[in-house]
């Protein structure tokens, strides 16, 4: 993956530094007038910092991953992200450990129907170009699906750890590379005539897409956020089956074959099972061992739900205005 074009002074300075061997540097402060969750410059810079812990970038020295200057710069950007999250997502009150499962279920139920349904639009009304645009957005996460949540495995033990491993094993195809969910999504991209290489569209997606991935990495890379990471994953699993059923039906309506739809069909079945594992075995067991962190679990779930709603609102608003929801006009630009 190549570094994308910068989107402001923060990414310009960061990408200039990353193009050279590790050295001391400082970033200019993000624009205080822009809300952190909508700041393309900030979110792209933070995504690039996090990506050094995943697959990295072509031509970027791998020693940057743990360079002190880079980590200090990332910490500044993370502080902006955390403040933005705190402003946008009310923190649910902590509950007794025994009440966490009910609280999570009620939180998800309250979010159901709160805002526009992107999945319903894609099932019934989207044209092929809009569906392709949706897949471009999702590729930023789905091509490394499960990786951010896997950071939690060494930070857990006992039943909660075993439950997370069980979920992640399915995400990674149970040892069969062709069944990894990231590989199934690549097949969806190929079926839609899109570039399925990792990070191909990083330069095309806006802050509202990048922040979804960044929050997962924030929670995953900090042990203090392990409760939020589990809540985030639980919310993902608890809200996945119906939207993926709709995506599959929408893609079938638009002519997508079984191979292109398999990613969505797989999630309809797998996530119905994962929902119960995540809710009861993973989060329930974690809460029993760490009752002081139930508020963190609920906050992680609330963040996942709120950011998904913001993403849906952005995409549908752009489409209703007759414009692209990506950063450049015309999805066909640069595509096969």
TrEMBL record:
The lineage of its organism: Bacteria, Bacillati, Actinomycetota, Actinomycetes, Streptosporangiales. InterPro entries: Haem_Oase-like_multi-hlx (IPR016084). Its EC number is 1.-.-.-. Keywords: Oxidoreductase. The keyword Isomerase does not apply. SMART domains: Haem_oxygenase_2. One of its GO terms (molecular function) is oxidoreductase activity. This is Iron-containing redox enzyme family protein.
């Amino acid at each position: 993956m190549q570094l994308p074009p910068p989107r402001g002074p923060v990414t310009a300075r960061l990408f200039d530094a990353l193009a050279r061997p590790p050295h001391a540097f400082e970033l200019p402060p993000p624009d205080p007038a822009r809300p952190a969750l909508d700041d393309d410059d900030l979110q792209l810079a933070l995504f690039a910092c996090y990506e050094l812990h995943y697959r990295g970038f072509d031509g970027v020295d791998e020693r940057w991953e743990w360079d002190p200057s880079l980590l200090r710069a990332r910490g500044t950007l993370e502080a902006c992200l955390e403040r933005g999250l705190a402003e946008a997502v009310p923190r649910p009150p902590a509950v007794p450990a025994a009440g966490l499962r009910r609280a999570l279920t009620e939180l998800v139920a309250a979010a159901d129907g709160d805002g526009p349904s992107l999945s319903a639009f894609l099932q019934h009304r989207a044209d092929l170009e809009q569906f392709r645009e949706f897949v471009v957005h999702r590729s930023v996460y789905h091509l490394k699906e499960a990786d951010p949540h896997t950071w939690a495995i060494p930070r857990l033990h006992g039943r909660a750890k075993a439950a997370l491993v069980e979920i992640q094993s399915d995400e990674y195809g149970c040892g069969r590379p062709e069944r990894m969910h990231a590989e199934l999504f690549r097949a969806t991209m190929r079926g839609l005539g899109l570039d399925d290489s990792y990070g191909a569209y990083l330069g095309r997606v806006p802050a509202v897409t990048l922040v979804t991935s960044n929050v997962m990495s924030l929670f995953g890379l900090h042990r203090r956020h392990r409760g939020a990471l589990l809540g985030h994953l639980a919310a993902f699993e608890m809200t996945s089956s119906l939207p993926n059923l709709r995506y599959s039906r929408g893609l079938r309506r638009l002519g997508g074959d079984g191979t292109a739809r398999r990613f969505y069909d797989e999630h309809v079945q797998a996530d119905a099972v994962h929902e119960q594992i995540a809710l009861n075995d993973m989060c329930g067991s974690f809460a029993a061992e760490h009752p002081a962190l139930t508020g963190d679990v609920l906050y992680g779930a609330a963040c996942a739900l709120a950011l998904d709603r913001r993403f849906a609102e952005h995409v549908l608003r752009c489409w209703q205005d007759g414009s692209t929801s990506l950063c450049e006009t015309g999805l066909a630009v640069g595509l096969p």
